[in-house]
Amino acid sequence: MAKKKIKRDTGRYQLPPRVKEARKVAAEATAWKPRPKLPQRRVILAMSGIFVLCIGIALTLWLPPRYLIQDLRSRGVDSVATVVGVDSKPKYVKVRLVTGPRAGNEVKLSDYAGMYPDTHTDATLVVTYDRDHPSRVLVRSWVEDPPANLPAYGTSALAVICLGLATAVTFRRLWILRTFGPEEPPASSTGGNEPRAEGVRNTKS
């Protein structure tokens, strides 16, 4: 009698775990791309710190002059004054009030965001001082039409630039971490063959 051929069921054949792992590692090694240089966290923190510092300086340059102008407009007293002293080290402008209730008093003009009017000794100015706090004095033209606060504008612009750079660097760091794989390429498969210890012999008989 002829022997019947036994058909092997090849559809249920599964690869050994070692082969699957080797194929997985090989696929990862093929798909691996070198990661671009990752922006450092300290750079992001430094730019964020500069941004916060610039915001603080900008607020210092914006708010006090604004409050000074508002107070002088609400309760200011106009007076003709004569410049009796101008110096740049430290910078100040001293005037003597000529008219008004405080005629004869000498006061230093308040700065507007670190700025003073361009004047000289013996010049005549019309100033406005605070009725409650006479030491707060500005020239009347600045009270009516304040000059451009250039220091505050510059500091605010620098703050915006630092914020933009910090945001861009942060998004780039996140994009690199999400787009690229590990920094080092995956280790190649050894085919499941583990290195054997040399110099060890079987002593069993």
Structure description:
The chain has 205 residues and is α+β, with helices and mostly antiparallel strands. 41% of the residues lie in helices and 16% in strands. It contains 4 helices and 5 strands. A 5-stranded antiparallel sheet has the order 3-2-1-4-5. A hairpin with an 8-residue loop joins β2 and β3 (106-108). α2 (41-75) packs antiparallel against α4. The radius of gyration is 39 Å and the shape is rod-shaped. The chain starts with 16 loop residues before the first helix and ends in a 26-residue tail after the last helix.
Topology summary:
Blueprint (H helix, E strand, L loop, with lengths): L16 H15 L9 H35 E13 L2 E7 L8 E3 L15 E7 L6 E3 H5 L5 H30 L26
Give the overall pLDDT as a whole number. 81
Helix count equals: 4
Shape: rod-shaped
* Structure class: alpha+beta
Q: Strand-and-helix sequence, N→C?
A: HHEEEEEHH
> What amount of the residues lies in strands?
15-25%
CA-atom Rg in angstroms: 39 Å
Report the helical percentage.
40-55%
- The strand line-up of the biggest sheet is 3-2-1-4-5
User: How many beta-strand segments?
Assistant: 5
N-to-C span:
48 Å
Largest sheet: 5 strands, antiparallel
Low-confidence segments, given as residue ranges, are 188-201
Summarize the structure.
The chain is of the alpha+beta class and 205 residues long.
Note the main attributes of this structure:
rod-shaped, 205 residues, 5 strands, alpha+beta, five-stranded antiparallel β-sheet
